[in-house]
Amino acid sequence: MASAVTCSAADLLPHLGGSANATAAAEFICDRFTAVSEYLTNTTYAVDNTYLLFSAYLVFAMQLGFAMLCAGSVRAKNTMNIMLTNVLDAAAGGLSYYLFGFAFAFGTPSNGFIGKHFFGLKEFPSPSFDYSYFLYQWAFAIAAAGITSGSIAERTQFVAYLIYSSFLTGFVYPIVSHWFWSGDGWASASKTDGNLLFGSGVIDFAGSGVVHMVGGIAGLWGAFIEGPRIGRFDRTGRSVALRGHSASLVVLGTFLLWFGWYGFNPGSFLTILKSYDSPKGVYYGQWSAIGRTAVTTTLAGCTAALTTLFSKRLLVGHWNVIDVCNGLLGGFAAITSGCAVVEPWAAIVCGFVAAWVLIGFNKLAVKLKYDDPLEAAQLHGGCGSWGIIFTGLFAKKAYVNEVYPGFPDRPYGLFMGGGGKLLGAQIIQILVIIGWVSVTMGPLFYLLHKFKLLRICREDEEAGMDLTRHGGFAYLYHDEDEGSSMPGFKMTRIEPTNTPTPDNHNSRSVVV
């Protein structure tokens, strides 16, 4: 945070000679100097908070991206349902994160496991946090919940969404973010007491683990416990594609998520007006690191998209825009951990491997008869895990010291000459997140399943949740993939007839 530069009349007085008015002149100069210094300090606070608010707005815009991506990836009969769940992720998550989540995550001073201050934003703002910081962290929390909703789409009861979303954003996710992002967290790279895990702490700059793995592993358990959608696998166990109804919505959602990622990754610096003591000169500061982070994010996503495009062409024989969009998002999920501490060329490596990680996990999911309509667990959980390992391999010493100052001998990437300690910390993060989310979200989904609150009945699933649970369809359609007798409209072309009418007009037939 900014700090004012002080001026002392006693220090200034010897430089003004021994005139009778020297004391008054020194006090006057210091008063003016202090006023200017305070103004600049206030300006710094304002600029940094405006930057953080703008980043929060970008991250929140990702909810629209999630909604469009989910809507396009499900069948038309479940469109209204999945869009409503995305709205509820934000709304229910807003209240739960306000009441409990933020306090559990950043309620300093606290222990290494859980925060214990700022419940309901009591005694807020503080010297440590302003309201912009709460809004930014809330946008991250609901992003994790949005990831999970995609995994269990098309067959989950609405009440289950409300329960798991509130629990995830109010308790499960905040605990993880406290461990790795709070100054008190036991594995945080920003731990204030200097007692860092393996001398480095975990570097998960924008949340490949904290956000993407948490959402992905939670979705994994939800989808596993309630089982695949009806018709996803035939009686012989062979995979049957249940295609989403709109590639256009998928592409729209992907571009919105791409746009929002520029708040997700670069915005995680939290401030922009910060200079670096660098031999590169005064033109190089945190603003430069923010720009570099945007570049690494872009390159990883672009590389993953192109890798997926050509790889799927070789594997299945055609160009598939849905696969390319998922590959792009997999690259973004992977680079999110190390985006601020790696070179742009390393981001290309990250995106290339992320594409193959996603392809491999999708192949494994089919073999295990695991059904995730949006590939959310494979994408966010699998690619997020790779991103954490990638950071332990490619983090550059100079960038690590810029982003996490105060410990010049901190370990960095194994492939960059920094030894294996950072990689060890990163692997610990992967294991801990898998364990924590499994012991919290797994039992929750199991209890919902036992009390018949998780999955809808077979008849409702076949007819579609929009009709049976939400009072009607999102729009009129005819679902070609469906063999059910649900109502719909099939439009056919209208042709003129050759029979003249008394009014000398051609009659037209209409088929509905």
Automatic annotation (TrEMBL):
Gene3D superfamilies given in the database record: Ammonium transporter AmtB like domains
GO cellular component: plasma membrane
TM stretches of this protein: 50-74, 95-114, 134-152, 159-181, 201-225, 246-264, 284-307, 319-338, 344-365, 377-395, 427-448
Origin: domain of life: Eukaryota
Membrane topology recorded in Swiss-Prot or TrEMBL: Multi-pass membrane protein
PANTHER family: AMMONIUM TRANSPORTER (PTHR11730:SF6)
Name the record gives this protein: Ammonium transporter
